């Protein structure tokens, strides 16, 4: 991030001020292209440590190797204040590659009750006939088309909450939990979070 900012003649003092430096849509797209397909090795992390710790906490067998990708996967999620840097509400399992993959959402900076990831408690148990969604590739936000179908409503409503993980905490959820629409309502702070994916060996839903 600092390298891209420097290339444009700007200084990135803190991650929270990202939006002040990266205010050009094209530059932001360049950042996203470089941060949406990260690996554990890019962050100097030992995947075996993550697998063991998460597996022991949840009582599951998990692997950093996502079967549908043939590799491990981490994504940096960046949400600038007042922006449309979001995904629509969705279930990860709508994409085959994520159907048996645990999502771990780890805040880095700017995560508050106004900017954290919204989730719908209990929605992993909703029958699909009670969920109203767009076709695959049918969700469009601010001209950006998303591969994952967006959920417009459910028969139980769209009662989402915003858990706000503290330092040292991570939000973990199944691929069937409805989540998304993480608008950043912070006045002056970019929110960043790392999204880890772990293949589940034992069913948890």
Helix-strand category: alpha+beta
Shape: globular
| SS summary, helix count | 4
The low-confidence runs, each spanning 5 or more residues with pLDDT under 50, are: none
For the record, give the distance between the C-alpha atoms at the N and C termini, rounded to a whole number. 37 Å
Strand content: 15-25%
Rg, alpha carbons: 17 Å
Structural description of this entry:
- It is a single chain.
- The protein is of the alpha+beta class.
- The chain contains four helices and nine strands.
- The chain has helices at residues 2-7, 18-21, 25-35, 47-58, and strands at residues 62-63, 74-79, 101-109, 131-133, 139-141, 144-146, 151-154, 171-173, 191-200.
- Strands 1, 2, 3, 8 and 9 form a five-stranded antiparallel sheet that branches. Strands 4-7 form a two-stranded antiparallel ribbon. The protein has a two-stranded antiparallel ribbon with strand order 5-6.
Q: Which characteristics define this entry?
A:
205 residues, 5-stranded antiparallel β-sheet, alpha+beta, 9 strands, 21% strand, two-stranded antiparallel ribbon, 4 helices
Topology at a glance:
Layout: H1 2-7, H2 18-21, H3 25-35, H4 47-58, E1 62-63, E2 74-79, E3 101-109, E4 131-133, E5 139-141, E6 144-146, E7 151-154, E8 171-173, E9 191-200
Antiparallel strand pairs: 1-9, 2-9, 3-8, 3-9, 4-7, 5-6
In short:
The chain has 205 residues and is of the alpha+beta class.
